[in-house]
Amino acid sequence: MSKKSLKVGLVQQAIADNDKMKNWQKSAEQIANLSSQGCELVLLQELHSTLYFCQEENTDNFDLAEPIPGPATDYFAKIAAENDIVLVTSLFEKRGSGLYHNTAVVFDKQQGMVGTYRKMHIPDDPGFYEKFYFTPGDLGFTPIDTSVGRLGVLVCWDQWYPEAARLMAMAGADMLFYPTAIGWDKTDTDEEQQRQLDAWVTIQRSHAVANSVPVIVANRTGFEPSPTQGDPGIEFWGKSFVAGPQGEILAQAERQQEQTLMVELDLQRTETIKRIWPYFRDRRIDDYDDLTKRWRD
């Protein structure tokens, strides 16, 4: 990467309904606001077009999916071009009849769509029934080349896996991006909620440290009720953030409000950190074969 610095931004948004156009326009307003401040790259949160529909298993929700290319990619390609930015978005992809993915799509200024990443790790927990909807990704951990650098784009549950971050970094990713939709069960105690939030921030900061790259995380915010009677719904905890290559927090959003963040990343400092802390030089790749096993007996 030849650039010495890069202004990156993210949008933390609350979603009230499944009106895609309304939600897209809301995102577009914040993207334009960031662009007007000189932002060159913007990240949106996971599945920002609609409510988080994975709180239940309902076949009608497959109607929310879209093909690529399709209406969402057409809309956000135009937004990226109008604002002259690189834009990382997220959508519910209909790849074919009965085949769906949770997919990040990257647009590069006037070039349009330049790459996609399909979520590799798919959770299946109470309130997060994603295995019902999404087929695991098949594009691998491959960075996406853009005019502002090589982007390692991952999605939500991927953020808990150091292997995913490492493979992106090994392929030359200049920075890591995590569009996210994570929140609390309303029945969790305050202490448990804080533990979960701390773990979420810590694991992603650790990816920055272990790979000496900035990490940009956009989470949704606000309460979304569950369509299932008796279910408490999800309070998405926001707290989107940008971390530097030593895991230092450069900016962080609040919990319960819509917000944008913008940070000017010192890319030369990232290179300097890699020279001082040469983790990749000292990796014992001759003794890591067991990492490809499910468990070590």
Characterize the structure shown.
The chain contains 5 helices and 15 strands. The protein has about 300 residues and is α/β, with parallel strands linked by helices. It has one domain (about 5-290): Carbon-nitrogen hydrolase (Nitrilase/N-carbamoyl-D-aminoacid amidohydrolase, 4-Layer Sandwich). The strands form 3 sheets. The chain has a 6-stranded mixed sheet. Strand 3 and strand 4 form a beta hairpin. Helix 1 packs parallel to helix 2 (about 70-85) and helix 3 (about 160-170) packs parallel to helix 4 (about 190-210). The chain starts with a strand and ends in a 21-residue tail after the last helix.
What order do the helices and strands come in, and which of them pair?
Layout: E1 5-12, H1 20-36, E2 41-43, H2 71-83, E3 86-96, E4 99-108, E5 113-118, E6 144-146, E7 149-153, H3 162-170, E8 175-180, E9 183-185, H4 190-211, E10 215-219, E11 221-224, E12 234-237, E13 241-243, E14 249-252, E15 259-266, H5 267-276
Helix pairs in contact: 1-2, 3-4
- What characterizes the major β-sheet? 6 strands, mixed
Shape summary: globular
Contiguous runs where pLDDT drops below 50 for at least 5 residues: none
CATH architecture: 4-Layer Sandwich
- Which strand order does the major sheet show? 5-4-3-2-1-15
Sum up the structure in keywords.
single chain, 297 residues, alpha/beta, Nitrilase/N-carbamoyl-D-aminoacid amidohydrolase, six-stranded mixed beta sheet, 5 helices, globular
